[in-house]
Amino acid sequence: MKTYPINSMRIPYTTNRSSFLSQIQNPQIATLASAIAGVIITFACTKGMYLTALLALIGLLLAFPKVLLTLYGRFEQVIRHYKYSPVLLLGIAIGFLIGLLLVFTVEPAQAQFFNKTQTWMTGAIPGIDTGLVSLIFNVLRSLFVIYLGIGLVKVIQSARNDDDWQQMARTPLILVVTVTMGDILAGIITGAV
């Protein structure tokens, strides 16, 4: 153990690294972690949670950097043998995975505010165009989001200028509470709770 003087005090300085990182590279632990991650990835893929599966795979590879570097080294050897650029092929593979991720994880947006009221309004008035009802409620939601965005920018700007940002934050907060209460009351009134 080495000691270094700091202001006439001696503070011990140890050079021992954590043994956790070296123990986690143990082949038995790596095999167990890979099996667990494989089960998680398989379960996530069967349930349609592709982003979770991708994140579990990335986490597994980052937990075992030696394995990741070994796999990349072998990949690079095979690719260079066939005279391809490994960086280009890896970029194409990553782009393909991101494309698949976007294709399989894109789902229609599920609005939270006035969703049940919109459903009630569509069925309550016979012969009403569902596109018109959807347009009206989407305009209301978009105005709400735009106002919140503008309010957030004002709050951040006043905080940067050392103004009273709490006073600026009250109005958007009151709007959020009002819209939430309006949604709850509309659900109670229409019976769509």
Description:
- This protein folds into two domains: 2-105, no CATH class; 115-190.
- It is built from eight helices and two strands; from the N terminus they run E-E-H-H-H-H-H-H-H-H.
- The longest helix has 31 residues, at 130-160.
- With 193 residues, it is mainly α.
- It has a two-stranded antiparallel sheet with strand order 1-2.
Short description:
It contains 8 helices and 2 strands. It is mainly alpha-helical and 193 residues long.
Task: Provide the descriptors you would attach to this structure in a database record.
2 domains, 2 strands, mainly alpha, two-stranded antiparallel sheet, 193 residues
| Coarse shape | elongated
Mean pLDDT: 75
* Radius of gyration using CA atoms only: 28 Å
SSE topology string: EEHHHHHHHH
Total beta strands: 2
Low-confidence stretches: 13-17
Within the largest sheet, what's the order of strands? 1-2
Estimated structural class:
mainly alpha
Task: Tell me the quaternary state.
Answer: single chain
For the sheet with most strands, the description reads:
2 strands, antiparallel
Overall domain count? 2
Distance from N terminus to C terminus (CA atoms, Å) equals: 68 Å
- Share in β-strands: 5-15%
Helix content: over 70%
Number of helices: 8
Topology of helices and strands:
Elements: E1 2-6, E2 9-13, H1 19-24, H2 27-46, H3 50-63, H4 65-81, H5 86-105, H6 115-124, H7 130-160, H8 165-190
Helix pairs in contact: 2-3, 6-7, 7-8
